UniProtKB/TrEMBL annotation:
UniProt-listed GO biological process terms: signal transduction
Pfam families recorded: TIR_2
Residues in TIR domain copies: 26-158
Source organism (scientific name): Stutzerimonas nitrititolerans
Name of the protein this chain belongs to: Toll/interleukin-1 receptor domain-containing protein
Record key words, sorted: Receptor
């Protein structure tokens, strides 16, 4: 698998954090932060590809049960995940600007320094207009790699 130098710079500190948290019990490999509008499209696609590679994914569509508190379940999911994947799409950019739930997830992930942005159908320039902090991090992009290639890189990142 080939990585760009920017990907190496981004993923190395995340990998170090993954290794430090490897002994914590009951952790999911990744928390998938996404816009509500993407839950049945690109977010589900990324989730399915990651799980097919053996990556355990916290995904609101399957992990928040009917009748439970969405924010509380998200909080637990964030605490019990090794790495946060932020799926940056036009829908997410709209949600972040509106300061919705995705904005709260992003704030928690930025504070922990355990996140990898995945840019899909948008650009870093558009991201920086809405979230300069997230936009300052290099990550992975579907403009350069397929979801399958991105998922393979993420699977390698979180593997023990």
């Amino acid at each position: 698998m080939a990585y760009t130098s920017a990907e190496v710079r981004t993923l190395t500190p995340v990998r170090e954090n993954v290794e430090r948290r490897a002994t914590v019990p009951d952790l999911r490999d990744v928390f998938l932060c996404h816009a509500w509008d993407d839950r049945k499209g690109s977010a589900k696609e990324l989730h399915d590809v990651l799980e097919s590679l053996g990556v355990s994914v916290w995904f609101s569509e399957k992990d928040v049960l009917l009748g439970s508190s969405l924010l509380r379940e998200i909080d637990k999911g964030l605490a019990k995940s090794r790495v946060g994947i932020v799926l940056v799409t036009p829908a997410l950019l709209r949600r972040l600007a509106a300061e919705g739930i995705a904005d709260k997830e992003l704030s928690a992930l930025l504070a922990r320094d355990l996140l990898v942005p995945v840019i899909h159908d948008t650009t870093y320039e558009s991201l920086r207009e809405v979230s300069p902090l997230l936009g300052s991090r290099s990550g992975l992009s579907t403009a350069e790699d397929t979801f399958a290639d991105i998922a393979a890189k993420l699977a390698e990142l979180v593997s023990p």
